[in-house]
Amino acid sequence: MILANANLILPDTVIRGAVTVENGVIAAITPGAGVPATAIDCGGDFVAPGLVELHTDNLERHIQPRPGVDWPHAAAIIAHDAELASVGITTVFDAMRVGSIPGEGGDDKSYDAYARPLASELMAVRARDALKISHFLHLRAEVCSETLIAELDEFSEGDRVGIVSLMDHTPGQRQFRDVTKLARYVQGRHGLSDAEFAAHVQRLKDLRARHGDQHEAAAVEMAHRLGATLASHDDTTQEQVAVSAGHGVRLAEFPTTVEAAAACHDHGIMVMMGAPNLIRGGSHSGNVAAADLARAGLLDILSSDYVPAALLSGALRLTMIWAGDMARAIACVTRNPARAAGLNDRGALMPGQRADLIRFGVMDGETPVLRGVWSRGQRV
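Now predict its structure.
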C-alpha cells in the first residue's frame, strides 16, 4: 500500500510525500507530490502515525452506559474498540480500577472489584481476532481502598499490563484538595445528603490512614515486577513529585499545578494532560489549565480521558498554541505516549515502524476530518 501526495507528519517536520507499507510495516518515506499508479492519492491531506492513548475511561462507559446498567461485556468491548478506531486511536491502554471498597452499599460509598474478570474478557475477545486496534492494560491502583493488594495479585506478566498508576483520591489533597468541588461532583451524581457526604469523606480518610502507605508500596512493586510504566496521578506539590520520582515514576498524569509540572520535568518525568481540559479551556476540577502548561513548555502528552474524539482535536489546538508546529503537537498523541509506555515500534512515520496510520483533513483551521485509519497496514 502507498499513501501518496500527502502532507506527512514526521517526527520533526511536515513534508509533502508518500509512505509505503509492506507486511504491516512502514517500508519507505518518499518526498514529493508524485502519485504512483497503484497508490492512494491523498490530495494533500495529512498522514500521521496512529494515535496512542494511555488513559481512557471509555471502556468503563461502554460496560456501564448508565448507573446500575451492566451491558453485555463482549459487545461493549467490541463497540469500545470500534469507537476508538473511528477517531484515529490505534493503540490504547484501557484503564481499569484496582482497589475496592466493599460493604456499605450505595453508589459512591462502596464499589466492587471488576478489573480481573474484565481484563480476561478483553483478552478473550482479542484472542478471537475481534478487535481492530492494539490493546494494553492500564491498572489504576487506588490506594484509598480496602482490597488493592489482593486485586493486584490477580495479575501476572502475561496480562499485557503496560501502565500502573498510583491513584490517591483521599479528599483534601491532589485532585480534590478543594473538598467543595468533590462535594459538587459526588452529591450531584449520587444524591448524597450533607451528612452522608461527610461520612463518605471520613471513611475515605480512614482508609488512607489504615492502608495507604502499604498499598502504595505494593503498587510500585507490582509495576516493577510486571515491567510496566509507573505513573503518578494528580501530583500537586514539589514534595509529591519527589516521592513519585523516588518510586521510579516515568509518567505524571494530570499534575494539578504549574509547580508540580515543572518539578516533573526537573526529575525527567513526562507530563500528560487531558485533551478535554485543553479544548474546554480549563480543568473541570479547577486545577491548572493544560494550555498554560503547553505555553510554559511543560506538556509532553495528551490523553483523551473521557472523550475519545478529543485526542486529535487536542493535537490541533496544540498546533495553534505552538505557532503552527504540527510535528511537535502530533508527537504528543503519537511518539511521546508510545515512548513513555515503552513502545518503540510505533508512534512515528519512519521506516521499520508499525504501519499504524491516520489520514485526515482540517476544517475551519481547528476541526479534524478523519478520512482513513490503518492498523498494521490494514484499513480499520
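Residues 136 and 338 are 12 Å apart (CA to CA).
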